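FORM 12-B: Structure-to-Sequence Request
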């Protein structure tokens, strides 16, 4: 399944461990080992890659329970394509994908942890910062 948003093609389920590693490192993140990436990809709810022609320029994956809660993970756009509509195309595609996967009367939670630099981007799509007036802060812990 692919869809063209702006000049980019979004492909569903074409994210390989090697491509993940390349896109992950392109934004300055230290990549996990290939075996760990493969396990994570195999257990993801969905994975999307943005292409400019044949060139992969961004990715995002969704983890979740398939019914009530989804989490946006590993959202990366290579630096030379940032602020050029790739992230927007990925977000629109993943939201449409989730909406189309759920029965019409279901409401689901879509969550993420943002870098400080990306907060404004996510706010454009209706995400609220945590803590907010009615809930506690988003939190995480790394286990080694």
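FORM 12-B RESPONSE
SEQUENCE OUT:
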């Amino acid at each position: 399944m692919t869809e063209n948003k702006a000049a980019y093609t979004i492909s569903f389920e074409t994210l390989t461990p090697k491509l993940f590693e390349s896109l992950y490192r392109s934004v300055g993140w230290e990549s996990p080992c290939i075996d760990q990436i493969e396990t994570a990809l195999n257990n993801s709810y969905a994975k999307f890659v943005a292409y400019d022609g044949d060139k992969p320029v961004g990715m995002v994956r969704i983890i979740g329970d398939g019914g009530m809660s989804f989490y946006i993970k590993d959202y990366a756009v290579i630096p030379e394509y940032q602020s050029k509509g790739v992230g927007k195309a990925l977000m629109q595609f993943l939201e449409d994908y989730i909406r189309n996967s759920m029965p019409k009367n279901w409401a689901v939670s879509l969550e993420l942890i943002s870098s400080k630099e990306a907060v404004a981007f996510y706010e454009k799509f209706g995400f609220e910062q945590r803590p907010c007036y009615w809930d506690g802060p988003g939190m995480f812990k790394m286990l080694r």
